[in-house]
Amino acid sequence: MTRDLTALVADLGGTNTRVALTRGARVREDTIRRFRNADHPDLGAVLRAYMADCPETPDAACVAMAGPVRDGVGELTNLDWIVTRSAVAEATGARTVAVLNDLQAQGHAIDHLDLDAVQTIRPGRSASERAARLVIGVGTGMNAAAVYRLGDRTLVPPSEAGHVSLPAQTDTELRLLDWIASRHGTPGLEDIVSGRGFERIYAWLGEEARDSRALKASAIMQALEDGTDPRAHEAACIFVRMLGRAVGNLTLVHLPFGGVYLCGGVARHFAPHLDALGFHAAFMDKGRFADFMAQFPVHLVTDDYAALTGSAAHLVELLA
Question: Of the candidates 74, 240, 257, 319, which lies 20 to 30 Å from 272 by C-alpha distance?
Answer without folding.
Answer: 257
